[in-house]
Design goal:
Elements lengths: L2 E5 L4 H12 L3 E5 L1 H4 L4 H9 L3 E3 L10 E6 L8 H8 L4 E3 H10 L3 E6 L4 H14 L4 E4 L16 E2 L5 E5 L14 E4 L9 H13 L4 E5 L15 E5 L7 E9 L2 E6 L2 E5 L4 H15 L5 H8 L10 E6 L2 E6 L4 H11 L6 E6 L3 H18 L5 E4 L15 H10 L4 E3 L3 H11 L5 E6 L5 H11 L2
Length: 455
């Protein structure tokens, strides 16, 4: 039995891969500084419940008989596990190395790329394929609500068929490692790289789709992809010329409805962008012989992924919503969906990292400004710091100052606790408190604390 260890195992990427290897019979262990700090206790228990051993991040997990150490991109060389592996000459590989290795051994790989919506779209594709007996292995970046009752962390669907569905990340270049049967591109927008860089990356990605590709016809930046593969299926919520087109999109109290070729369907998750996600999922599943109406019907039971406009609950007429939006296009999409419904928005956005905020902080604030009404409020704590060596030459205060210059009613507070006090002070019946941000697993806990405070 091969022994494998993961450094940073609490992260969504490594925790999913650890569970995949455990299901394949590997002896799996791991460490995470969050566990050592008493955080992410629920994730720790979930991993232990499927037989994964959790060690302190002090090098003790790195024994001589270890086959490989897989590391998160968020860890530094100074971490004791990495030092111990180097001293013992144990191979060190990244998350993307392992994901590509697993993906490329499957006959039919579906790689889902794009700036926004990858997690939800990957989940939708996997859900349809799983429900219709195609037995896919699905490796996701989010928690799948439909699989919340399964042992472990629900960011995987464990099957042993010949289909593998994954998110393909372009931000670290790892998208180049995948050899997909179907290459899916949801959209191309500014995130970690320039638009021109992204166009080139996704053009090469689409060209590699052995069976074909699925491309968003509504995304201007995706036009350059349309001649990169002879078997492209397009989808759109605006252009009837698309291969997969939805019309008559209507918000519902508990989701959204749409028409596909004059047949009416509904989703249990809100927003026009989720209708687009559904079209992309349906188009992808057609490559596996699945009828589009059958796929659309299955998606009516899809309950979404956690932290994607996730309604935590309501008290005294105030609704608390948890959301993963953290770049300009994600914020714009979430705000658009939120605007489909009545009620003032009290938003806390937690910026995720100093480098991303230098790169796109003002664009994110512009996305808020474009959608916020005069009665809405925006609150920012200081930029989230996950550890490591970073240049702290920008502050959330700078972003708040920019927001105010755009006419947004925005406030800066050093800590989330101060913002919690302010939100509970302001909230009244009919309001929606929305907590946005990435990378920090404690944000859902913060949402529940807010809900509790509304009693």
């Amino acid at each position: 039995m091969k022994k494998i260890s993961f450094c940073g195992i609490s992260g969504s990427g490594l925790s999913a891969l650890a569970q995949v290897l455990k299901s394949e019979g590997y002896d799996v262990r791991g460490s995470d500084r969050s566990f050592d700090q008493g955080k992410d206790e629920e994730y720790k228990k979930a991993l232990e419940s499927v037989g994964i051993e959790i060690y302190p991040q002090d090098g003790s997990a790195i024994t001589e008989d270890l086959e490989c150490l897989y590391i998160s991109t968020a860890v530094e060389d100074s971490i004791l596990d990495i030092k111990a592996a180097l001293e013992k000459h144990i191979p060190i590989k990244t998350r993307s190395d392992l994901l590509a290795e697993i993906f490329n051994t499957h006959k039919y790989g579906v790689a889902v790329g794009g700036t926004s919506g990858k997690t939800t779209l990957t989940a939708m594709i996997g859900f349809v394929l799983d429900r219709l007996g195609k037995k896919p292995l699905v490796i996701n970046g989010g928690l799948l609500k439909n699989y919340a009752d399964k042992p472990g962390i629900p960011n995987v669907i464990l099957n042993s068929g010949d289909i593998c569905v994954v998110e393909a990340d372009e931000s670290d270049g790892s998208i180049e490692k995948y050899n997909p049967y179907v290459a899916v591109v949801n959209n191309i927008a500014h995130d970690h790289k320039s638009i021109e860089e992204l166009k080139n990356i996704f053009a090469a990605f689409v060209a590699k789709g052995k069976g074909g590709a699925v491309v968003n016809l509504d995304c201007v930046n995706s036009e350059v992809l349309l001649d990169k593969n002879p078997h492209i299926t397009t989808f759109s919520i605006k252009n009837p010329k698309a291969d997969m087109y939805a019309s008559n999109i209507q918000p519902l109290p508990d989701g959204v409805s749409y028409e596909l070729d004059d047949k009416k369907f509904r989703l249990k998750i809100p927003g026009c962008f989720n209708v687009a996600n559904a079209l992309a999922a349906i188009a992808t599943c057609q490559f596996f012989g699945i009828d589009k109406f059958k796929a659309a019907a299955v998606l009516e039971d899809f309950t979404g992924t956690k932290r994607r406009l996730d309604v935590i609950g309501s008290r005294n007429g105030v609704t608390v919503i948890d959301d993963f939006a953290h770049n300009p296009s994600k914020v714009a999409a979430s705000m658009s969906a939120l605007r489909d419904y009545d009620g003032r928005l009290l938003i806390m956005f937690q910026p995720h990292g100093f480098s991303p905020m230098r790169l796109m902080g003002k664009e994110i604030i512009q996305s808020f400004a474009d959608a916020m009404l005069p009665e809405d409020r925006l609150f920012l704590p200081e930029i989230y710091y996950a550890g490591g060596t970073v240049t702290r030459d920008i502050s959330s205060k700078d972003l708040v100052d920019y927001a105010v210059s755009l006419g947004v009613k925005a406030e800066f507070y050093q800590t989330r606790e101060e913002i919690k006090t302010r939100l509970l002070e302001l909230a009244k019946s009919g309001d929606r408190i929305v907590i946005m941000g990435a990378r920090d697993n404690s944000l859902p806990i913060f949402c529940h604390q807010l809900l509790e405070g509304l009693k």
